[in-house]
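Lab notes, practical 5.
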Amino acid sequence: MQSQLYLRVGKGDLCSRRIMVDEYTYRDMAPSEHQICIGVMDDHLLKGTAHKGFVTKNGWYMGSVFIKIPMTDMSLSAFIKLVTKINSTIKKRYTTNDENCPIFKGATYSNIYPHLVKCIEEIIEMFKNETGNKDWSYYDGLGNVTVKKRLKNADDFVKNW
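Output from the prediction step:
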């Protein structure tokens, strides 16, 4: 059975920073980081299979990649517009699922990881090109809980089923 993952870029509206403009006014600004979730496509999985067993035991969530936003002066509304534009472009470049999230397929979850990285690097390049700021970057997961490690664990679970 083929492993399938999806990448959810989101809308850019889940969190923000609020700065005080004056004594009575605040402005919502872009967050310092933006989370992109990676999940297991389980619609096609048959009950009783190793892949379905993994999702049933561990859930769909495989981890997150965090985009570091270097622009401290970007408004939240401008960030939402930017993420919406980038998300629209990415959806045109990749096959998507029912929720319009890019999907990736491979023999194993670990085999898919380089394709996820390529897509994320494309997203980073789009942020750089759209804003003119070359300091956009990303990192995989939090501490020891990386997407790459979670994918390896999923492969091990499926292998040992």
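Observations recorded by the TA: The chain has one domain: 3-159. Strands lie at 3-8, 17-22, 25-29, 33-40, 61-68, 103-106, 137-140.
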